[in-house]
Amino acid sequence: MKIIFVSSAVLLFAGIIQISYASTESCQCVAFRLDDIQDYWLDNVQTKIIDTFQQKNASLTIGIIGNHIGQDAKITDDIKSKLKLGNPEIEIANHGWNHEDFTQFNLDMQSILMKNTNDKISSLFGITPSVFIPPFNTINSNIMVAFLQNNFQYISANTTQDAPHYLIKNTVVYHLPGTAKTGNLNDGNTYWYSENHRQTFAEIMDSLQKYGYAIIVMHPQEYSVRQALNYSNTADENQIHELELLIDEVRNDGLKIVTISKIPKHITNQTIPVWTSNLFTWYEKGKISEDEVYNAVKFLMSQNVIQFNFQTITNDSMNADSIYPLHQNITTTFFWVGEPADQDNQFIDNLASIWDDKWLEHYGGIDDPTSRNGYFPAKFLPLENPFYFALPYNDYINGSRASDAYKVVYWANEKNWTDSESMLKNKWIKIIKGDKTAYAQWEDAGPNVYDDASYVFGNNLPKNKSANNSGLDVSPAVSDYIGLYTDNKNIVSWQFVNSEQVPDGPWKKIITTSQIYQQP
Fold first, then answer.
1. How far, in Å, CA of 395 to CA of 379, rounded?
2. Sequence-separated (6 or more) residues with CB below 8 Å from residue 429
3. Which whole-number Å values give the CA distances from 83 to 39, 123, 128, 256, in the listed order?
4. Picking from 36-50, 215-229, 391-405, 406-420, which range would have the lowest pLDDT averaged per residue?
5. Cis omega before residue 135 (within 30°)?
6. Of residues 269 and 146, more confidently modeled
7. DSSP state of 393
8. What value does the mean pLDDT take over residues 236-257?
9. Is the Cβ–Cβ distance between 36 and 220 less than 8 Å?
10. Beta strand pairing call for 180-181 and 11-14
11. What stretch of H or E contains 144?
12. Is the dihedral of CA 390, 393, 397, 401 positive or negative?
């Protein structure tokens, strides 16, 4: 066994060790929970926090106090506008009617209070919450009965009142308490103070190791400029910056940011060994600092002792964060709508696509690579985007969802998909070759392979053995734009992007919106 000194106070074990885990499963994810959303109270601060998540393209769960929402247009209109965008997701949770201690009421009144807030949220925002955040984090058996009477599925208190349950799938009730925080009440309970992002980071890692998930609890007071014991309606820019640093840290370490209700949908294997609990115990007892925890965890990540699968790439050219991995040095071939069957495409024509039995007809004709008018075919104006591509995975097989789709597709849980809808069709990627970057929409599967999830949604190389392990097919428009074959090196990098990240260009002249079409 090798002993490595990471700092003056921390000893970490590396080398040949037996790795075991406290929680055998993990979502490798973090949820942020913003409590106490209400009218006419620090509304500038509330909207500033929500805007920070929007700007970072990060999901957020907000706890609304039912009897104190709906009159202040600043907060209600802001929430409505964010809900319309849909991405990143804002999840609305029920946080009581008057922020009352529910344990002080009988079962009937508890159920009425929950229903009142659900009805108010439904009338304002068109949403019925599935998450209940009990005010003061208090829970008793009657609360759980009222919880079920109001069709909730997720309860989020704190670990003192409601011990975390290990992650399980397909249960009736999920107990998902807050396990980390960005601020806290002082010992006298007279004011809120803020934590720096490394303090919260240490709590996140502790929670992930113990329970397989982390929920960070926030309150508007923590982000307000405080004058003595009074909170002002001005956001504390230093603390907002700490929040931004925290979001970036979480993502850069490969963790997903999800809403509370999405935590059970991301269950995978645990990757933080149980013996690291000593590190977090020392921190909790004040024996080491948050900086020492941070440095220790970073060292373990560098040695692949701790590793998360969800990668983050910063796109400097767009000045935006991408939440998807960058695939580099990928051999790329080209194909086109209406391409006849021959040896180059394993005698599979492109009259139909994997999702559209009448692709040729719906596109408007043959996308002939030898007869062009700029980036369009010369003989007609296409009805769909001429910037298209194929990747070797299909989520929709013979009328049914692929068995692994919800597990592997990054955005699978961002909406409810109908049985006749592909999660993949029309998704955007950017394709980079040298100093050229094009954007295109996903309209077919291939080349040659249709189930290569570990490459498309992971970090593996393509398993296709043809055409020098080609992992991407692009349309004539894409090929022409990036000069795919100009240097006899048809090698590119590609990356999924969200639609709002796609800049103006020839790829936005016509945008494909059609979904699956199967001949009757």
1. 33
2. 389, 391, 439, 440, 442, 494, 495, 496, 497
3. 18, 14, 13, 20
4. 406-420
5. no
6. 146
7. B
8. 90
9. yes
10. unpaired
11. helix 141-149
12. negative
Q: What is the pLDDT of residue 18?
A: 38
Distance in angstroms between the alpha carbons of the first and the last residue of the chain: 65
- Could you tell me where the DSSP H helices lie in 266-369? 277-284, 290-302, 359-363
Q: How confident is the model at residue 303 (pLDDT cuts 50, 70, 90)?
A: confident
Rounded CA separation 26/10 (Å): 26
Q: How far is CA 318 from the centre of its chain?
A: 19
- Residue matched to tokens 């796109």: 315
Spatial contact of 409 and 324, defined as CB atoms under 8 Å apart: no
Which residues lie closer than 8 Å to 201 by C-beta, 6 or more apart? Answer: 246, 249, 250, 290, 293, 294, 297
Q: Helix count (H) and strand count (E) of the chain?
A: 12, 29
Amino acid (one-letter) located at 316 = D
AA letter at 379: K
What pLDDT is stored for residue 148 in this prediction?
A: 95
Residue from 256, 246, 263, 240 nearest 312 by CA: 256
- Rounded CA separation 268/270 (Å): 7
What are the phi and psi torsion angles at 416 (to 5°)? Answer: -90, 120
Q: Around Cβ 228, how many Cβ atoms within 10 Å?
A: 5
Phi-psi region of 42 (alpha: psi -120 to 50; beta: other; left: phi over 0): left
Which tokens is 95 given? 């946080």
Q: What is the rounded distance in angstroms from the CA atom of residue 465 to the CA atom of residue 461?
A: 11
Lowest mean pLDDT across 35-44, 237-246, 409-418: 409-418
Residue 55: partners with Cβ closer than 8 Å, 6 or more residues away: none
Name residues whose C-beta falls within 8 Å of residue 280's C-beta, 6 or more positions apart in sequence: 202, 205, 206, 209, 293
CA-CA distances (angstroms) from residue 408 to 278, 311, 405?
Answer: 33, 13, 5
- Residue 61 forms beta bridges with which residues? 33, 91
Q: Answer for the pair 493, 324: CB distance below 8 angstroms, yes or no.
A: no
- Cis, bond preceding 447 (omega within 30 deg of 0): yes
Measure the CA angle with vertex 374, ends 368 and 378; round to 5°: 40
Give the C-alpha separation, 62 to 36, whole Å: 8
Contact at 8 Å (CB) between 37 and 60?
no
Crossing angle for the helix pair 73-85 and 107-125, to the nearest 10 degrees: 70
Q: List beta partners, residue 181.
A: 217
